[in-house]
Design goal:
about 40% helix; 6-stranded parallel sheet; 6 strands; binds magnesium ion; binds 3-methylbut-3-enyl trihydrogen diphosphate; disordered N terminus; Undecaprenyl pyrophosphate synthetase; alpha/beta
């Protein structure tokens, strides 16, 4: 974080930002354009915000791109979203690599076409040795799916006799979730005006700071992003303690 910004100096550390990028469809509708035009415009915002995180040395950025419930959309929109995903994987990855970004895709990839799965594998491999921003793209992701798949993995280990039931604790569950090994998200942003989690990374949001904006994702920019970050730094994260305890801890 820039040292000359006093609101950023106290207490809170901002390592991981997660975003529900919502409002593409409404952005397009307002302009009498097809919903897909909103998704395309949304990709420009992704580029800008990733760039901003790289500049600010944020450790992890997790973006909700396609939820496990988004398959319920009209077939044509789903098809176009898949095409956009494939083209983004082809066109954007070189730039990410140049920026030292570590790309990860979280979600149930088995539902995607073989072509997309191959593009995902190639993209991840290209960026595998990078050491900068970790960019998690949540695709066919659902928080409930994530916890369920973790439970299955753990149950399998119990069945195989690798661990006993008494070994299961919160940290073991965390170690089997898609975001294992990463710092927990500190700041959650949702654009588009809705005040809900929509089955995003529900386990990790337990102690995250929330920021909602009515701005539609294609209109979201560095200025509003900075506002969300400022808001984060103005808060006191107590994690169950009292405010007085935190003040005395700082002394
Ligand atoms: C978010 O924008 C992008 C995806 C879910 C893929 P929406 O498409 O949900 O946009 P609105 O909410 O309909 O405006
Ligand atoms: C959440 O947005 C998922 C993504 C942004 C990818 P939605 O637009 O699907 O959420 P709901 O349906 O309004 O809750
Ligand atoms: Mg939406």
């Amino acid at each position: 974080m820039p040292a000359d910004n006093p609101t950023r100096s106290i207490g809170n550390r901002l390592k991981h930002i997660c975003i529900i990028m919502d409002g593409n469809g409404r952005w397009a509708k307002k302009r009498f354009m097809p919903r897909f035009a909103g998704h395309k415009a949304g990709l420009n915002t992704v580029r800008k915000i990733v760039g901003s995180c790289v500049e600010q040395n944020i450790e992890v950025l997790t973006l909700f791109a396609f939820s496990s419930e988004n398959w319920r959309r009209p077939k044509q929109e789903v098809t176009l979203l898949m095409e956009l995903f494939a083209s983004a994987l082809t066109r954007e990855v070189k730039k990410l690599h140049e920026n030292n970004v570590q790309l990860r895709i979280i979600g149930d990839l088995s539902a995607f076409s073989e072509k997309i799965q191959q593009l995902v594998n190639e993209a991840i491999a290209l960026c595998a040795d990078n050491t900068g921003l970790i960019l998690n793209i949540a695709a066919n992701y659902g928080g409930r799916w994530d916890i369920t798949q973790a439970a299955r993995q753990i149950a399998h280990k119990v069945e195989q006799g690798e661990i006993s039931i008494d070994d299961i604790d919160e940290s073991m569950i965390e170690d089997h979730l898609s975001l294992r090994t990463m710092p927990e998200p500190d700041l959650f942003i949702r654009t588009g005006g809705e005040k809900r989690i929509s089955n995003f990374i529900i386990w990790q949001l337990a102690y995250c700071e929330f920021y909602f904006t009515d701005t539609l994702w294609p209109d979201f920019d560095k200025k509003i992003f900075e506002k969300a970050i400022q808001s984060f730094f103005s808060r006191q994260r107590r994690f169950g303690r009292t405010g007085d305890q935190l003040t005395s801890l700082k002394k």
